[in-house]
Amino acid sequence: MATILLPGASLGPGKNFLPAIERARGQDEFPLPNPPAQFDAENPLSGMTISDIEANLRALCHNANPRLLLGLAGLNDQQPQSWIRLAHFLILRANDLHQEPGRVRARPVVVTSAVLVVVLAVLAVAFIPVPDDYCGGQYQPNMTRLDKTIQRKLHGQPLVHDIVVRYIKDHVNTASPERALVLSFHGPPGVGKNYVGGMIAESLFLDGLNSPCVPQYIATKHFPHHDLDSIKEYKDKLHRLIPEAVRSCPRTLFIFDETDKMPEGLIDTIKPYVDAGAPVDGQNFNKAMFLFLSNTAASTIIDKFIELRKGGTDRNDFRIKQFEKIVQQSAETTDGTDKKMGMWHAALMKHVHVIPFLPLELEEVEKCIRDVMLDLGKEADLTKEMWDKISDEISFMEKDGVKYSENGCRDVRSKTLLHLEN
């Protein structure tokens, strides 16, 4: 009897493979193996090479070529995640047919497709636990790491540390959340929005931002056109990709960058996936997380920051209530072209946790310089003279006696490297 050893998987039936199955069956190019085979994935599939996974799948299918299905499904056979999805797909399709969530058990079956024949012909009495949050071994949340990383590496953002850690921790520690977690980062450029997004990914998934469980969309790259036909195409794409990603990993972290530049109404596409207790097409999205990054309301945040600092309030004494409402109001108004942009006019706003990022002053910029030198192993070479020269090349703005960096710490690394080269 065949044995499939797999420490769990959460990938569902994967719609991309279904038409591929039909085409393979029609071409009779994915034959049924005769003797039983063994697929040994005692370690997480994410830790295996493409060659290892391919060899195991060939053995499972008795030397049938698994690359055929990847090609017919339009997936890149040079990407490890394509192979992981294929391996999970074959096993979980069998789970579905047995109608025993979390387990696979041998029993007589009636074959309806060539690929399903392959799977069911080699499954045996082995029981396979399928943890809901397994995510191919990628999901490994570490809230202590998130807390310490933000405290150590993020400068001048006390509101961010307290709120982000609390929301992420509560969502992660809740077995069955009422709704998906939606965080919206607002503020001027270079103050840490993308930086914190990376920290969140690193604290949740084994491969961080490179994890297949962290889809990233940049408005100007992935949604560059604003005509109606393009917007419809983008909406259809998101309606396909979001459910597919959550089938692969219920704890998927979606990151949407430059959301202030997204076509009008596009971000409303995700609203069905974040409504409380409302499955979409029978699928639950409540464990997923959505992170929006935007420069929206930057001027409003800066004005409030200057008002508080001018009044003598230290940034560490700021409170979220001082910013939350004005950011929401600013986000819901029109921009200079009288056209509402991104998500900020959307009904989605009622589900969003708004998190303001503050401008950075000289003290925070100097900490960023120190961090760069520390990363380069040259902290001992950081003299007062070098510190002052680098700081002098950073563009600062001043209003009502309050001085802040125009681009946060965005230019610090390049300026520091330039001085080291000279």
Index terms:
single chain, 422 residues, alpha/beta, five-stranded parallel beta sheet, two-stranded parallel ribbon, 16 helices, 9 strands, 43% helix, disordered N terminus
In whole angstroms, the N-to-C terminal distance is: 68 Å
Give the amount of beta strand, in percent: 5-15%
Indicate the mean pLDDT. Answer: 78
Query: Low-confidence stretches at least 5 residues in length (pLDDT < 50)?
Result: 1-15, 31-42, 92-130, 334-342
Order of helices and strands: EHEHHHHHHEHEHHEHEHHEHHEEH
Strand segment tally: 9
Largest sheet: 5 strands, parallel
Question: How much helix is in the residues?
Answer: 40-55%
Q: Can you tell me the overall shape?
A: globular
User: Over the alpha carbons, how many angstroms does the gyration radius reach?
Assistant: 25 Å
Please count the helical segments.
16
Strand order of the biggest β-sheet: 4-5-6-3-7
Q: Which structural category fits the helices and strands?
A: alpha/beta
